[in-house]
Predict the structure.
Amino acid sequence: MPKQNSGNDDSEQTPIDFSFVLASSVHDMKNSLGMLLNTLSAMMANSPPKDAEQAQFFSVLEYEAARINGELVQLLSLYRMDENTMSVVIDQHYVSDIIDEQIARNDTLLKSRNIDVQVNCDSNLVWYFDNELIGGVLNNLIVNCARYSRKQLRLTAIEEGNFLCISIADDGQGYPDNMLMGAVPQTPVSFSSGNTRLGLLFTGKVLELHKSKKGQGYMTIANNGPLGGGVLTLHLP
Amino acid sequence: MADLGYYKMHALIIDDFENFRGTLYKMLMDLGIGNVDSAASGEEALRFCKARSYDIILCDNNLGKGKSGQQVLEQLRSTDNTCSDSLFILVSAESSKGTIMAAYDYEPDAYLAKPITPKALDQRLGRLIEQRVELKAIHAAQKSGDDQLAINLCKDLVDSGSRYANVCQKLLGQLFLKNNNLAAAESVYRTVLDNRELEWAQLGMVKTKLAQNDLLGAQQWLENILQANPLCMKAYDLQAELFKLQNDYEGLQGILQKATDISPLSILRQQALGDVAQQNNDLVTAANALKRAVKLGENSCFDNPSVHSLFAQTTIDLYSIDKELAKPFVREAIVCVNNLEENFGKSNLRKIESLLLESQLQVCAGDQRRAQDALASAQSSLVGNEDENALSVQIELVRTLRLIGKADEAQQLLEDLLHRYAGKEEHLQHLDVLLDEPRSEKNKLMVAEINKKGITFYNAKDFTAAADAFKTALQKLPNHIGLRLNYVQAMIDKLRTHFDAGTSEKVQQTFTKTNAIISQQHPQFQRYRQLSDVYTALIKAYEKNKRG
C-alpha cells in the first residue's frame, strides 16, 4: 500500500509552494518600497538638492527605486499569468495616450538624465490592446532605455501589415549579440551574469496574451536603429 | 492644453499617509485646481462627501483600517449622494484591476499606479476632464431622464468620428438596453463585433439575448467570453442571471461558487451564494459563504442585517442535521448576533431576535445556562409587545423553545398564535414554517402540487427530479413530515440505482432532522421506521459489496 501523507510523519514534510511564498513577499516588498518612494519624494520636497552632486544622488535613488518597483510589478504579473489569474481585457485605445502616459510617468527620471524624448505617433491612431499590460511593458522599456541611451529616445507607432508596431529606439551602444538571435529563449534567467532578463520574459508573455484572428503579438530586436543604437519593436495584432 | 477650468474645481484626496496627502495636495495645487481637501480615511471622506460635491476624488485603495478605496467607491456610486458622479480615480501601489477584481461591480473612472509623478497626474486628469467636457451634454440628458436626447447626442458623436466614439458606442448599447430597444442594441454590438471581438460588446450581446428571452443565444455568447477570459466577473454575474431565469438553482450555486473562488472579496456574490446554497439545502456551503459575507460587511455599504440573521439560522439548522459540521461556525455566529443591534441600530424587536438566536446558538455550543439566560431575557422583553411585526420574533421563539427542550411550551405558544391569526392568510403563511401540515391556502396548494409533480416523477423512475421537487417544498415547510419522507424515499431509490456518498450523506442528515421532530404518535411514524430500516439495509449491502 502506498504510504499515506499524514501530518504525524516526520519524514514527509509539506512541500513549500515556493512561487506562492515569493509572490507574497514580493507583495510585501512592494508596499515597503511604496513607503520608501513616498518618504523620498517628501524629503526632496522638504530639502531640495543644494548642488549638482546632491541632485545626482537623488536621481540615482529615484531611478533604482523605480527599477525595483518595475521588477516587482513584473514578478507579480508573471506569477498571475502562471496561475492563470491574470485578467486580460482588450479594448480600443488611442496609441498616443498610452505612450504619453508612460513618458509622463517617467518624467522625473528622463529629466534628471537629460534625455530628450521624441514621439512619432498619429494622435488619431487607435488600436486594440490591454492598456495596463502594454503600458507596463512600455514603462519597463523606457526605464531600461533611459539607462542605456546617451541623450535621445524615440518612440514610434505605426500600423504595418495589420499589426500595430510600437518601437523604441535609443542612441546607446545597442543590444548585445546574444539578444539579437531571433526569438527570446524560454529560459532567459541567468543568475550568474546578473542579467535575469525578467523584462524580456514579461514583454514576451504580455505579447503572447494579445491574439486575434490575424495572429499573435511578438517583438523584434535590432541594432543600428534610427538613432544609431538599439531598437525594440512590439507587434500587436 | 485648452483651459479646462481647473481653478473652479474642488478635489478630494483620500490617503492614510500624511506624506502622500501632502505630495498630492501640492501637485493638484500646482496644476491650478481651485480647492483641495484631504481625508485620512474612507469614513472621513464620506462625511466630506455628504457636505459638498467634489469634481475629482483621488482615493488610495489601501486605506489601512476601515473602508478600502473600493468600498468608498461602492458607497458613493450605489447610494444617492452629491458625489455619485464625481470623477473617481483609484490609486493603487500595484497597478490594477487584477488585484482589485471585486472592483468589477463598480469601476472607477481611472486607475493610477503609485508612484505618481506630477506630469502623469496632469496628463491623466487632463484626459479625463476633456472627456467629461465632450460628453457633458450626454450626461446631462441622461441625468434629466431624457434618454432619447442622450441617444441622439451619442449617435452624433459616433457619426462625426469623435475621439470618444468608442465610449459613445458603449453608452448607446446601455441606453438601448435600458429602453428595451433590443434590435438597436443588438445592432450596436454587432457593428463593434464585426470589427473586433471585444469583451464589452460580447457582454452586451448576452444582455440583449437575455432581454430577448433567447436563453440559448445568451448561453453561447457567455461560453465564448469565458473561454477567452475565464476571469471575466461580469460574465459570471450574467451567467448567474441566466440560471435564475431558468430556475436552475444548482447551476446558480455552481456559478456563484466559481465566481467567489476567483474573486472572494465581492460581498454581493458571497451573500447571493449563501442565499442560494441555503435554499438548496447545502448548509455547509451556505454557512461558509454567509460567514464571509458577514466579515466583508464590516466596512461595506452592502451589509445587511438579514444576512447576519441568516448566518445564525443556517448555523442552527446545520446543527440540527450534523453537530460536528456546525461546530466551526457557532462561535462566530454568536458574536454576529450579539452585535446585531450595535451594527444595525437599536430596536426592541431586533434585541429580542438576537437574544433568541443567541439562545439557540448557545444550545449548539453546549452551554445550557447561557441558552436559558438569553431565552429568559428575550421573553421578558417580549411581554406586552403587541406589535404585528412581532410575528417573526414569535416564530423564532417557538424554534428556540423547541431546541432548548421546552416542547410543551413551544406547542402552547404555537397554538395561541394559530388561534390569534386564524383566517389571516398572510400570517398563516409565515406560521406554516413551524407546522407539519400547512394552514395557509397558498401552502396547502403548493404541497398538493409538489406532491403531485414529485410522485409523477417518482412513478416514472426519475428519482432525482422527484427528490428535487420535494426538496423545493421542504425549504418552505421544513417541519412537514410527509414531504420529508417523500424526499427520503426518492433519495433512497436514487441510491439504489446508483450509490454515491453525497446522496447517502444527505439521507443520513434528513433522518437526523426527522428524528428530532417526529413523535411516536405521528400517523407517519410507521413509515419513517420502515424507510429508516430500508436505508440501513441498503448501507449494509453496499459495504458488504465493497469489501467482497
